[in-house]
Amino acid sequence: SCCRACSSGLYRSELRPRRPGCSGTWSWISLRHQDGDMAAAQQQQQQPPAGLSLEQAKVVLTEVIKAFASPDNAMRMEEARDNACNDMGKMLQFILPVATQIQQDVIKSYGFSNDGEGVLKFARIIKTYEGQDPEIAAMSAKLKSMFLPPMTVPPHSAGISAS
Question: In angstroms, rounded to a whole number, what is the distance separating the alpha carbons of residues 47 and 23?
């Protein structure tokens, strides 16, 4: 395989030129290689977190949140939000790549690969620690709110009673 993401069956993102007629010049696309092994990906996801202790995860998470607040990155995220116009497809196209890059810039100093796979591994570790530590859960929610739209409950489920 050409990379660990390919051998594990995970997706990886690449920046590619956009089609003529689209606004902007570049877009992110996800590629899945034909030779991916989904069983290996599932096994990798079930392994306990390696590489970061709970305390180290807090430190890295704090640094990632601070990186989003830096003036340059805040401006990049605002520009991406403006381009997305509250459209979910455009959010994936504009906001997610910027958010991924901001996280990559921080986590690569902690031994994560400087690509989408590194961000996914970091996210899996944080997700595992969320259930163990309320501070990490709160920090993770804060980080997600910086680049994911708020999840709303559909109106029809609000009137359903538990009886």
Answer: 42
